[in-house]
Amino acid sequence: MSEQVVPRVETPSGIPLEPVYGPGERAAEPPPPGEYPFTRGNFASGYRGKTWTFRQYSGFGTAEESNNRYRYLLDQGGTGLSVALDLPTQCGYDSDDEEFGEEVGRVGVAVDTLADAEILFDGIPLDKISTSFTINGTAAILLAFYVAAAERKGVPREKLTGTIQNDILKEYASRGTWIWPPEPSLRLIADTIEFCAAEVPRFNAISVAGAHFRDAGANAVQEMAFTLADGVTYCDTVVERGRMTIDKFAPQISFFFYTHGDFFEEIAKYRAGRRRWATIVRERYGATTDKASMFRFGCVAGGASLYAPQAQNNLVRVAYEAMAAVLGGVQSMFTAAWDEPFALPSEESATLALRTQQILAYETGVTKVADPLGGSYFVEALTDATEEKIIEIMHDLETHGGMVRCIEDGYLQGLIADEAFKIHQQVESGERPVVGVNKFVVDEPAPDLATYELDAEGRDKQLRRLAKVKAERDDVAVREALAALAKSAEGDGNLMHNLIDCANSYCTVGEMVSTLKSVWGEFQQPVVF
To answer: What is the pLDDT of residues 13-67, one digit of tens each?
Structure first.
């Protein structure tokens, strides 16, 4: 009798999988949850002590519109805010800049000055609710607005919790909202890290984001490896300045990822990433505390894994992805709405996305036991194999000169483009099954959605507010604050206090960015073939 031929199977990242796993497949039993290197989680009690943060990503139109949505989400049981900014704000332009007129408030909320930030967080207890900002090139400016707005509400900066994404390296390689060249951009990021460690101790100064690498085409293992390599670059920058130890600032470094549909690969990605980061922080930088060595991450369930055909299938995709993130030990999560391939989510779909997390947290039992998959022959073996692949990729980047060099010469962009093309080919050929796209396809009309439309009145309202602020502010104070910012940028002092002074003087985002451009210049993107 002939033996059955078992086909070769591998994860989407190319890690070969055995048909069955047993005790001989793993290197060693990992320590329990809460013990270095934290493979099984940062805390011994898992989610019994604290459930992950329900942080739904939102922001559109004017500050008033977004404030209403934030209040609604909090009323519906959200436990944190995640602010989406429009493209002018992300790229360092004001709403009255003619080049960006049609983009004002389109993919996020428009924030030009402190006046917008004050309205955006009106009625929200900033000493109790944590706020995450998906902002990079202008992250330090948005942090300055947030600190200034909070202090005007009577909330001292020491009580603020939240995160600014502030990860410029991935912008150069995958997304494009860069402004200045790498060297001054890294200097500004180091300024924010040192400032937060010294003065805003409960606020994460950076969220090193692999999600954008993933959206651009990277696979799960590349996403983690590229992200950790970026994290090393940021830590190197701060350590080399010699002003602060790793134990002081590392607790305020966090990470951010996409969770896609290959269930066990995603779980292994997070377990391996947590172990690798803890090892790097201890062995490369000499961290002495568990708090400095912990890998804290948030994620999105959704993104490029969602599709327009048979769009309600996305509800199922997001639910499975969210469970994978939780079993991987996520600290905060945004579950995408099923209609996001079409437009900004409706209030109804945004609520359903939040309910997905709440059902997962309160009905499925996944929070009752820390790392319930720990000890699984398969999960532990896949975690080991994933970490080995992460180490291999990081070593390759290091041999090519590190992340900045890999970005400047286009090497990193090339790796991502190659993988994106491979994934596209696999979906087109059917090698990578996608239900409703290349498998179980049906002809159906596009869903009739109540999509958000930014009207001209919203843009006009934003322009009127900006004009009013410019007319009523103290022009002398504005000029003095911007001049002081330029002078500090020419030296090596921390710019955060200058930016807060500019914020309190009602300088605009565009004015602060232009001032720094006059000193630092602008980044020129390499041509990648």
So the answer is: 999 999 999 987 776 789 999 999 999 999 999 999 899 999 988 999 999 999 9
> Which residue(s) pair with 257 in the sheet?
299
Residue 143 lies in a domain: yes
Q: Residue 86 is part of a domain; what is its CATH number? A: 3.20.20.240
pLDDT at 3: 64
Residue 281: closest CA among 250, 325, 327, 318: 250
Is residue 300 one of the residues assigned to a domain?
A: yes
- Rounded Cα distance between 301 and 81, Å, is 16
Tokens at residue 517, please?
């451009």
**pTM as predicted:** 0.95
Relative to beta strand 16-17, strand 9-10 is: antiparallel
Residue 9: in which H helix or E strand, if any?
Answer: strand 9-10
Q: Mention every residue, 6+ apart, whose C-beta is less than 8 A from residue 86.
A: 59, 103, 104, 105, 106, 107, 108, 109, 110, 111
Residue 509 lies in a domain: no
Task: Output the pLDDT for position 528.
Answer: 59
- Which residue segment(s) compose the domain that 205 sits in? 9-429
Non-local CB neighbours of 1 within 8 Å, separated by 6+ positions:
none
Helix crossing, 377-399 with 263-283: angle to 10°?
60
* C-alpha span between 76 and 57 (Å, rounded): 14
8 Å CB contact between 129 and 153: no
Task: Give the span between the Cα atoms of 374 and 156, in whole angstroms.
Answer: 41
How many structural domains is the chain composed of?
1
| Cα–Cα dist 339/422, whole Å | 26
147, 316, 447, 448 from 444: Cα distances, Å: 49, 19, 9, 12
Q: Is residue 487 part of a domain?
A: no
